[in-house]
Every structure is written in C-alpha cells, then in structure tokens.
Design a protein that fits this description.
mainly beta; seven-stranded mixed sheet; four-stranded antiparallel sheet; globular
Amino acid sequence: QVQLVESGGGLVQPGGSLRLSCAASGSFFSMYMMCWYRQAPGKQRELVSCTSSSGSTNYADSVKGRFTVSRENAKNTVHLQMNSLRPEDTAVYYCKAARAMNNYWGQGTQVTVSS
C-alpha cells in the first residue's frame, strides 16, 4: 500500500513558476513509476509527465520545455517544476504511483494561473 500527499499548489501569475511535490509512504518507492496528471474543470484527467524507476521521463506535448519531473528516491518524493505557466495550466494536479497492476493516487493540489 502506498499513500501519496501532494503539496506546492497555489495561485500564480502567467509566466510564473511553481514546484509541486508528492511525498510517498510505504516501501520500494524507487521501483514505482511516478506520474503527474491534471484535471481542469469540465475536462478529463490528462497525463502531464512520468518518471520511471530507471529515471527516464516523458512529457505531454503541451508542457514540454516548460515542466520538469524529478524524483528523490532517498526521500520517497517526486517533484514537478513548472515554469512559464499559462492560464490553460490551471487544474488540480494529481500524483500517481504505479507498479505491476497497482495504481495509487494522491488527493490532488490546485494550481491556478491567473492575473
């Protein structure tokens, strides 16, 4: 069983930056694929970025070059550095841990990009 707690969301102006963090409880964190998703009002949840157990990363086209995912296995934590934020990045951001057939989700953190 893995429990995930996201933090770091908030209100930021367009062009600004935020750093989200997701802290995981449980064992074998380094073996999990860790992903960030987001869900805007009235829209489906969409994949933003993932980092695998080997450290490889991928990104949605809409955030490439602006967002960076990283993980600190010693601290059971994954981060999402978000730069050059746009109003369309406004959403609830969720962290997910995946391994084999198991998926675990955090409760989400709100990111609002507005002037």
